[in-house]
Give the backbone structure.
Amino acid sequence: MRMFSVGLIVSLFLCISTFSPGSLGDPSGETPGNPRWCDLPLTAIEIPELTGLENRAISHLDHFWLSRLEQLGIEPAPEADEVTLLRRLHYALTGLPATPEEVESYLADSSADRWEQRVDQLLADPQFGVHWARHWLDLVRWAETDSYERDRLKPGAWRYRDWVVNAFNSDMPYDQFLTLQLAGDELEEESLDHHVATGFLHLGIRDDEPADPLQAVFDDLDGMLDTTCRSMLAISIGCARCHDHKGDPIPARDYYRMLSFFEGLKPYKTGGGNGINTGNFVRKLPVDLGTDDFDRSLEDWRRERTERLAEVRYLIEEVRERWGEQPLEEAREALWQGQVLHLDFDQQNQTFFEDRETERGEGYRGKSLQLDQNDRLLIDRPVQDDFSISLWFRTEHEGAGGNDDLRWFRGTGLVDGEIGGVVADYGISLVGQHVCAGVGQPETFIHGPGGMADGQWHHVVFTRQRETGHIILWVDGAQVASATGGKQTLEAPEHLSIGRMFPDRHTLQGNIDEIRVWNRVLEDDEVLDLNIGPGALPAHRQLVEERLGEAESKRLALAIERLSQLHRPDQKMVQVLSAQERKNPPPSHIRIRGTASSPGEKVLAGFPEILGGGDAHIMSPSDGESSGRRLALARWIANPENPRTARVISNRIWQHLFGEAIVPTPNDFGKFGLPPHDPALLDRVALELLEEHWSLKGLIRRLVTSSVFKISNQYDAVANQKDPENLYLWRFRGRRLSAEELRDSVLAISGNLNRTRGGPGVFPPMPAEVLATSSRPGAAWGHSSVEDSARRSLYIHVKRSLLHPMLLAFDMADTDASCPVRFNTVQPTQALTMLNSDFTGEQARIFARRLLNEEESLPARVERALYLITQRNPTEQRIRDNVAFIEKIQREFDLDANKAIDIFCLMTFSLNEFIHID
Amino acid sequence: MKDRKRNRKIGNFCGRTRREFLWEAGAGFTSLALGGMLSNGFFSSQSFAADGSTAFLNPMAPKTSMIPARAKSVIFLFMYGGPSHMDTFDYKPKLYPLDGQNIEVKTFGRGGHRKMGRVVGPKWSFKQYGECGKYVSDLFPNVGSMVDDITFLHSMTADSPLHGSAMLMMNSGKLLSGAPCLGSWANYGLGTLNDNLPGFIVMLDNTGGPISGAKNWSSGYMPGQYQGTVLRSQGPPILDLEPPELLGGGIQRSVLDHLRSENEAHAAARVGNPDLAARIASYELAYQMQSTAPEAVDLNTEDEETKSLYGIDREKTADFGRKCLMARRLVERGVRFVQIYSGGNHDDNNWDAHGDLKFNHDKHAGATDLPIAGLLKDLKRRGMLDETLVIWGGEFGRQPTAEYAKGTGRDHNSYGFTMWMAGGGTKGGTSIGTTDELGAAAVEEPLHVKNLHATVLQLMGLDPNRLSYFHAGLEQRLIGVEDTQPIWKAIS
């Protein structure tokens, strides 16, 4: 989906009306006539002529970079060697080291565009999205729990993470990327992803038991607004929550006008105590939302069933017409064996156990039991060991309990044998749209497909075999669920309740008919026969064969076989962290000094004065589910005319490729941030992003194929005199691997990395020392398989109160606030982690096994290890030194040869050549 | 940096230097963060960063304090769960006869806001101790013997009576998670006195951490070297401190020597990359920590009399006593901030006495009274109490009334509760502020958690209103936006 067509850049920058700076008394000196650099429209800039370094330029961007160096009289470092570049590129795009095969194929490639080919190959690698998603997740403080006492799981938060990965991989245009996160639910076009994206709004910390619940809800809204403004606009608007911004011309009024965009959202908490309103921000949605896939498959199912049923009925009818009812009745005789109860409800005002009249309505056959409000029927429980129950029901009302938690006892009763408390009891109920059952085993529940409250008759059969405890649930002739239930002889309850849950809970509003109970377990064909009317039993086939011939009998058998295989399609539903608005959003107020309970002047949703101000043009989406406020905000941000949006993301892309952003404070372009090293360069990068129609891959491709990405990080004393901080990139900035890159690389090099993408977070082993810091050490962390524990670090579950110690030691992003630039510390705890942790020890052993498998001699193993670690052939001397080291420790400490290699492998993870990129 | 800030009026956002912004930008100068954890000699040969012109600043190196320091170190004895003040140090004689009566009293706790409640009379009697004649309950007879060294703060208040946010408030000054803790601020402001030990150490209860776990010793928006390090009282004291079996028996030294030669060869070919040298040095420092840290917490060199003083020879008090003695040894070795938790996990595993007050407080006071008194006595006789500030208290106190219809349990109370301080430049033999006759709320000289924090910083030589860290567009301060006074009356 394209939100905006950019068209010609030139014409674009002529229409800047939306963003003409508003009028504002401005303490900082930035006035309507003199806005800050980043609030000026982006305008095309002439490409600078180079006078001396022109042979170093590959792209237009290079002209901007090189012209600054020319002005400073600095010669840039020469191009780095090919292996250095390859290592740099692989890490920049995927966060993983190049494999030996990848290095070799590159070096063997003599084509002139091998670099560009490799760039395209890496951009197309799904690991690209895994790596780049992390940059975005840092900005939006993505974590999977709420923090505070219970540190609750945010249901389905991982889907948002996967959505970000997929967005990067599919090169979703950045304007769309932002729009979906702010207001995916407000777009006309519906899809599951649109809702998943709005999980963005629910990622913050949430106190489940705040001293002041209203204030806590506003803290949450503040988190949304502040994160939006920092991540998308590089505005530190949070400062204006309590008072006018001290640095930038942002009055508190602007803050509350912007906050209004989010105030339509349902609050995460409405009452006291420690409960939160999960239903206000989590929805259960069909995976194929917005498509008609499910409707089509349902239609297919109906059509085929109707056709097959017609064939069966035609044959049965023929028998009936020619030979009467009797042979058909005889064929069914065996079916009624063991039937101990049959309620057809055909008599009016029949009373049962209680002296109580019940209503009759139109039935599946004849009349039916019609239930409303407080009706129900009690019957003596007729069975105790093996049994089968068959019934038909029809309703237009969803059962109690919703569609999220399908435990039978929460629903509306059909045939209920519930006994109070957590005991081995049985029952069949309707929960939401699903037929559900209790199976005589506490905490074991089964359920059928949804779509049952559709006003049509549905057939339910429940069978129980006492000896094995085997339970089967059938809906509309198809087996939909089974379980192992209790194996006891039933002595309770005394009665079964029809149409209502025991003891006096939810009653069906609808009809029940043809309740039959057997003291035996029905066979598959018997269930189908009950479902379709006579025709499915072996006796029917025999009858047809005798009377109508073998051909017709085969036809019947085929139709029955097909019917028995036809399963009503079930719509798969998933839990999604997503935006939900109140029906009538309250008016927005300034909150005096940031105190939620002190509303001041009323304000309307609108934009900050520094970006032109103005009220938002809000249109409610036609589905009536939301106010349209957030979509108005999204349209304004994700707009090529917004002077900040393209600059902010371009600055970040530059940051992740070149080590430091052009504006070194990427979350704050205001007075409290730092000015750009080179405003023209940043504007040029932003313009190129717009030329690429917001394609981030396109921009990244342009940058890494430019000359500026290829220079070496060679030191030069003269250049260092002139630009000691290397602001103008006369040499490449080397860097340490990030926490995730480091862990992933250890796994990759040991040959152990699991590159599977997506799904719920994984739980690699957590040291006991770390678990002991939790208030519930035994329940604090999950367990994942060895394979899952070797997934990329992005997929490690992020629990705010219990972070992964290795990622923490290597400066993972703070989880509670937007993190634009990670710290880059050197600490002894990092050395302790690399040398002494269970993780590195285990990976060293796996790495050593890999070497033993792949190479024969010790020198070859050492060579291979160093090659894997550095992607470069080690010198002969270096191989000899390391072989000597292995032999030395083996001799001195009397080690067996394999253990000495384990130790060598562990050592290699601490090589600076591994941990740092040139 | 500090000197310049001293001359600057807080609230004026102008005049910042490039270096301050660098913190905001993620500390582009990575070597800064390594800081004083490296031996001081290491960087003497390169007092400029490798760019050749930027003076090397070392935030973890000891810094000149902003104001004269009274305390070098802090030991914070955190009574997690919230001890009852009227059953420990805040004597309320009028509360006893009201036991069982329903009275009008405004309370706010886990059970929400209430106007009426059934009084639970204090379950212990009080006696006078010391020259100052301070009343202390029978829960703390040993601490009672030290009252002349203790300054009681009876009128403490906090912003939340609910554990999650109240814990964060007591530790970081904020109700919202994500801010640095008191120990982080102390280390940020003062640097470390011992290169080989972490500057902020936390010892947890054997039953588990407090709720919100690591948030209670997090460095929040400050870099990782300011976060608390969890130290265990048994086994290897710090995570990954002990070499694994693979590197045991002296192999590790050989590995480090080889690693060093490899990394030096690598660095030699890369002029102007200070990170590389810093990382080489960090491995040596880690190696030193491996021997220093176990020595610091090895109690075998302590004589029996000292161990007995801390109650290590008694089952009930051995664990907390061991932690208190370890704290003294850590402080002796220059650790700035040690926090010991009494209580962990949930329910009666900490001071959160909602059910049976008698059982709960007998248990926790019984485990801590002797060790705490031992710590104070030991610090005093060694001449260390003057420069070591000991703080006692929980995240809040408890209500005079029962939470439930039956039983003696009390609900949380942040309207008024007691904490105390000893040593480190505090007066001793003093009580500041009062709660009402029921102990329901602070009445005279109400104090806020921020005043306590300001006092700690002030005593450590840091001006609470000037110590700031630039983050997210603001000069963040431990004490928050409003200037806050230390509790001057507590300071000698």
